[in-house]
Amino acid sequence: TKLSFSQLFKTMLKRNTRTSMNIPKVVILGGGYAGSLLAQSLEKEAQAGRISVTIVDRRPSCHLKIGAIRASVRGGEWTERTRVPLSQVLKYGRVVVGEVKEIDPINKLVLFKEEELEKKQEDAADVEHATEPLPYDILVCATGACNHSPGDLPSSVQTREDILAYFKEIAEAIRSSENILIVGGGASAVEYAGEIRDVHPEKPITIVASSLDLLSSSVAPMSEKFMKSLYKTIEQRDIKLVRGEKVVQPTEADWGQRKFLKGPIKVKTMGQQNLELETDLLIWAATWKMNSSIYPDTWLNEIGELNTSSTFQLHDRGDVFAFGDVTSIPETKQAITLPKKTALIKENILKVAQAIALNKFDPHYQTKGLKSYKVTDKVTMYLPVGRDFGVTQEKSSVYGDKYTSKKKGGDLYSGYFWGLLTGGPAPRPTGYSVTEA
């Protein structure tokens, strides 16, 4: 997208209007787990004036997707625990709400959709709305990935009131359904089935997975003991499991603005059994997609991930970092692993920022002395099947219900991430006992 001369001049003038010290501009795209953790970790440097930090998202809050599964099943009780205001995460920087159109890497600008630039300010006073192209010296791409699970909010659901209404709609659809079909073979499908079983102990629930084994997309495979325990737990919770059958995904027109389909619906599978299933409610918890359409094609691999080096920089751009699900780092992506990685990427960003401040930085070369992230083949996974049930694998050890509930199922990490992001406790839902890890 070409900018007019006046737009470009105004933006470049703003970029070059500095104090006596050259303060690098760090712009973080995405206010989810990864982007918010990184923004919070850079607070002290921003407060000291060594860098400026801006976080950009379509919503004024960090959406904690893991807890959102419970919120959507329980009709909004957990909503406040799943949305952390970004103004509480980043107190010494800017929070910009807007829909990014694309990145201009030549002029180092984040460009917003035209309708976003024309929107009136409707958000809280402590966030800004996108009004013009946003310049950066260091860009952090933390836009994550999405699937069709109802816990992963549609782009049209943005405000607190939108989220409450959306979760109540899903909960009512679940409550009024005679039976429920969940498509997916990953952790999201299993966790969703467990949450529904907690609230509706008698309702028939079926999971249909295209692979013969659940969690088959994990980069490092789970142990045989873990898998046996998982299948046993699913059976004990009276959740029917159909493996090795592929369901053709409905079209976007069928879904509309929702992430569930209310029936009755006839679903055909393709596999050894070629089943025909009828359901009152179809939930799709499969087919992850990278949120990467705003980036230049040359930055992406064949599945839409950002080509990421071990320093979290892009392979051919030292001033662009990637963090979270959108990276190409070959590992099973989990929110719980992000806090340890945050310290490493923070240190690398600050070293690049220092080079920029001293005018000793070339974006086409890696800055010397950066730390490298090493992928481990030691798998850790906490997989609740409802609040008080589930299976855990920590390296080679496998644990059951009580341990999994304590580590994740009781609270779904909401209190833990609230504490990391804000330094304070998460709001406590009414009428529900919370066990925080």
Quick recap:
Strand 19 (313-314) and strand 20 form a beta hairpin. Helix 4 runs parallel beside helix 9. This protein has 14 helices and 23 strands.
Task: Indicate the topology.
Elements: H1 5-16, E1 25-29, H2 33-41, H3 43-47, E2 52-57, E3 61-63, H4 65-73, H5 79-82, E4 83-85, H6 86-89, E5 94-97, E6 100-104, E7 109-112, H7 114-118, E8 128-129, E9 134-135, E10 138-141, E11 145-146, H8 160-175, E12 180-183, H9 187-199, E13 205-209, H10 224-236, E14 240-243, E15 245-247, H11 252-255, E16 260-271, E17 276-284, E18 289-290, E19 313-314, E20 317-322, H12 338-357, E21 380-384, E22 390-394, E23 397-399, H13 401-409, H14 414-422
Helix pairs in contact: 2-12, 2-14, 4-9
Structure in words:
The protein is an alpha/beta fold. Helix content is 30%, strand content 23%. The strands form six sheets. A seven-stranded mixed β-sheet has the order 8-5-2-1-10-20-19. The protein has a six-stranded mixed β-sheet with strand order 14-13-12-17-16-15. It has a three-stranded antiparallel β-sheet with strand order 6-7-9. A hairpin with a 4-residue loop joins strand 6 and strand 7 (109-112). The model is unreliable at 16-20 and 117-123 (pLDDT under 50).
Rg result: 22 Å
- Could you say which overall geometry the principal axes of the C-alpha atoms support? globular
Largest sheet: 7 strands, mixed
Strand-residue proportion? 15-25%
Strand order of the largest sheet: 8-5-2-1-10-20-19
Put simply, the count of helices is: 14
